[in-house]
Structures are given as structure tokens and as C-alpha cells.
Amino acid sequence: MTKFDSFFDRYILKTASKRRLIAFYIVFVIIPIIIVDGIVISGAFRSERAAREHTMENQANAINYTFTNQIDQAAKLGNALYSSLYVDRFLNTKFSSNLDYYNAYHDCFDDTLLKLVEGQSGLNFYIYLDNDTVTNGSEFQRLDQAYGTDWYTYVEESGLNKGLYFGRRKTADGQTQKTIYYFQRLNYYNNVSNNILVVIVDYGKLSETISNLNYENRAYICDSNRVLMSNSRYSNINKDYDLKLNHNNIAYSQDFEIYNQILTIDVVAGNDSFINAFKSRWYQFIVLIIVNLMLPIYVSNILNTVYQNKLKEQESLMARKNAELLALHSQINPHFLFNALESIRMHSLLKQETETSKMVEHLAKLQRQYTEWNDDNVTIEKEIEFVNAYLELQKYRFGDRLSFEIDVAEECLKLLIPKLTIVTFVENACVHGIESKITPGWIFVRISSDGEFMTLEIEDTGNGMDEDEGKSLLRRMRFANIEMLKEKGRVGIVNACLRLKMMSEDEVSFDLDSELGTGTLVQIVVPVKYLKGLL
Fold first, then answer.
1. Residue 406 predicted with pLDDT over 90
2. Alpha carbon distances (Å) from 89 to 63, 189, 195, 281, 404
3. From CA 187, how far away is CA 78, in angstroms rounded?
4. For position 5, what pLDDT does the model report?
5. Are 198 and 238 in contact (CB under 8 A)?
């Protein structure tokens, strides 16, 4: 070999080493930095967005409560007058003279709690009477005084017995102001009565109360076409109602119904989310910059950590083997049980008692699955074998009353799942669905995947549940915890749901649809990444 060849070989090796070093640097330094930066930054933005949405939701709830509470005060006053027999008698009395009306008016106020109710509520009300003998004045007006007003036109056109109307009225100083009217027909004792109660809600006071909630974001209460109220302190009570906002500016909306009015609370987006995220989590960005600068220096430490982790994994494996050896003693009794069951099965076969043999075989499978608990996770294929054995055993009990069908997509067979989870839901379907039903029933087990999520469905055509029982069970499934295992009633379901939540880092979702007398469908959706990660 010439010197040139040797030099060339060294050059090739050096170049290859550089390339490997560059590849190593890209794989173990650049890519992790990009991934970590992306996770931290996206996490900060998601957290900021979630915090902002939570704040806007709280703001909408506070405005909803404040607005509804004030309107409810008007409704309480209306209901008190609506159901008062004294008021009804006064409204429908034909007075012979103004003096007669005057005396009856004072008797009505003296003998009832009208003044007390009005004083405590702080609200003004007017009653418009279809009675020509009434003298206009104070809280009582003849009905013809309402003709032509915008609120009365709305009442007549809507045909409602009670409701809200957002309009305008003239004040004593001649100005026109925004006004909220609560109206109610006074027909409790007389269905054909045209008498109408109108309670005036102080728009300015209510608007000021909402403004004093002191939330940062601008919010509006709207109907389908107009902005009815805002938390803006400079909102002008004398202005006309503005048109509803452009939806592009709305960051959060909440609909609610109040006295036959469908209203919406629209909250406008606040400051830029990037600035807010940086201000609230500046320390995270500082740490991120430090990590970006220091990571290349600590690559060797990371590799050493990986090596140490591998070593610990080997040590853990050895410790597990030792533990298995120590556990052999506890497996002696199940071992004898399995041998005994096998002897019974073979004896049954020799006597051509195939049905008994099959039952013993299924029972042995169930018992072995319960006793061999080396790992909490098994393949779906293995779990389905257990489910099939359980259902076959149940068919000996129920006979033609029970049929079942199992449909598992091929790509799901090798995914791992906590042991005895599927069979727990199947057992629940048998016990609570099929057992108490006289007519034949079916149990369906379906497992499929779209590559990102695995969907597990257990359906029965049993007795089903009423709405309250279904909601209670679904709540226990979604919020399963250790404390629930100490309670009575379907702890097996709670146990299975809890282990699914722990396995998927609480990203599993549960749903339940049940109808009394028809059946129950349980749906479980788990991200596939957790099922593959168990392999």
C-alpha cells in the first residue's frame, strides 16, 4: 500500500467520522432542541389560551348571573302581583265614581303587601287595566294608555303571557333612555283578562353593576340583532341599541334563555396571546434559552444517563426474575388446581361428556387468567380469548337467552391493554343487562382503530338503565379514583376505568348510551400511542 493510499484511507475515515459526528449532532442535539422548544412554546401558548378561555368563561358566567338575578327580582314582583287575589279583585271592580276608585285604591294598598313588595324590590311597576272606571295615576293606568307603545306592540305580536322587551322610554326630563321591560299578563284568576303588568328594570343601574365586575375583556349582551348591554363604563344609556358585533372579533360566546328571550353573551378577545404568554411564563423561556445553550455540552452526560438507565433496566429485570422465583411457592396451589381441572376435563372426555369438558376448559382459562398476574398488561388478542371463554361459560347458564358477537380489527390484536378490563364491561353487560331480562339478548364486542385512536365498544340488548342511573354510572367511569373502590356498587367498572386512565395518562374517554328496556352501549376511546408504548 502506498503512502497515498494510506493517506487516502485516513482521509476517508476522517471524513466518515465527521459525517457521523454531524449526523450524531443533528440527531441527538439539534432535533431534541427543536422538539423541546416546540413542546415548551406550544405548551405555553396552549396554557395561556386555556387560561384566557377560562377567564372569559368566568366573565360570561358572572355577567349571566348578575343580569339574570336582576331580572329575577322583577319576575318575583310580577309573580307576587300575578297571584294576588286582592289585586285581581281590585283590577276587575267597576267603580261608580273617582272617589269610589280612590278609596278602593288605598284599601288595596293598605290591605295587601303591595307597598312592601315594591319598596323591598326597588323596582317600579305599572298595571294597565282593561277597566274604563279606573282613573289614570300612580301604578294603575287604563289599558288604552299603552296602545301604540313599542313594548305593548311586542306583547300583542308575540302572544306571550310573560317575557322581556328591550326598548326605550321617555323620562320626566324629556330624554329617551334604554329600558328593560318585564311584562306579565294578569290572567291567573281570569283567562280572558287583558290586564298587563309592566316592571321597569333600571337599565343604567344594571349596566353599572355589570361594569363594576371589573373584567379586562369587553363583553356584550346581545339578542339576534342588537347589542343590548355592555360592560363598558362609557356605555351611553341615551344612545340607540347598536347592531350586533362582527363575529370575527368574538373570542367566547355563551347563550342563555331568560323569560322567552334567547340572549348571547359575547366576549371580545383581549391582548395578544404571545405577549401574555411571554409575560406570564418568562421564566420558562429563560430556562429554554439556557437549555439551548448548554445542551451540546451535556450530550455525553445524556448518553451516560441512557447507559445507566439501561443498566438499571437490566437490574430491574433480574430483580423481577428473583421475585418470580420467590413467588413460585404461592403458585403451587393454583398449579394443583389446574392439574385437578385438567384431570376432570380428561375424565369427562373419556366418558364422552363433551359439554362438561368444555365448561371445565373455559373455567380453567378463567382461573389461570386470574392467578397468573405477572404483568398488568396483556394483548387484546389474549384478553379477547378470555372474554370468549367467559361468554361461552355464560351460555351454559343462559342457554338460548344469550348470544354474542366479537369483532376485533386485525391491527388491534397486538396492542396492549390492562388485564381484565374488557371482560369487566362484558360481565357488567351480562349481570345487569341480560340476567334480569326474560327475552333473548345479545352482547356485542367491537374493537377498531383509525391509527390514532382505538375504539372499544361493548353493547348489550338487555334491560338498559334510566337516565339518572346512566348518568351516575358514566360519572363514576369518567371520574374513577381509588376512593371509589371503597364504596359499594360496580367497583369492578371503577377498577377497570381507573387502570385505563392510569395507563393512558388520563387521556382515555368514556361514553355511555342507555335506554330503559332497550339496552346499553359503552364506548371507550384510547390513544393508540399508549397502547403501543406498552409493548
1. yes
2. 39, 9, 12, 68, 70
3. 12
4. 41
5. no
Helices 380-398, 354-371: crossing angle, 10 deg rounding: 140
- CATH number for the domain harbouring residue 527: 3.30.565.10
Task: For residues 169 and 201, give the distance between their C-alpha atoms in angstroms, rounded to a whole number.
Answer: 12
First-to-last alpha carbon distance for the chain, in angstroms, is: 51
pLDDT exceeding 90 applies to what percent of the chain?
Answer: 22
Other CB atoms within a 10 A radius of the CB of residue 91 amount to 23
Which residue do the cell numbers 285604591 mark? 105
CA distances (Å), 92 to each of 80, 84, 102, in order? 17, 13, 15
- Spatial contact of 179 and 171, defined as CB atoms under 8 Å apart: no
Residues 430-456, mean pLDDT to the nearest whole number: 90
Residue pair 207/233 in contact by the 8 Å Cβ criterion: no
Q: Is residue 315 part of a domain?
A: no
Q: Say how far residue 514 (Cα) sits from the centre of its chain.
A: 18
Q: Hey, which residues does 408 pair with through a beta bridge? A: 447
Dist CA 180 CA 163 (whole Å): 11
Q: Please check whether residues 402 and 273 belong to one and the same domain.
A: no
Find the domain containing 444 and state its range.
398-535
CB atoms closer than 10 angstroms to residue 163: 18
Between the alpha carbon of residue 271 and those of residues 42, 78, 203, 248, 319, the distances in Å are 18, 43, 29, 15, 56
Domains of the chain: total? 2
C-alpha cell at 438: 326474560
Predicted pLDDT of residue 16: 45
Q: Whole-model pTM?
A: 0.47
Which residues lie closer than 8 Å to 124 by C-beta, 6 or more apart? Answer: 118, 199, 200
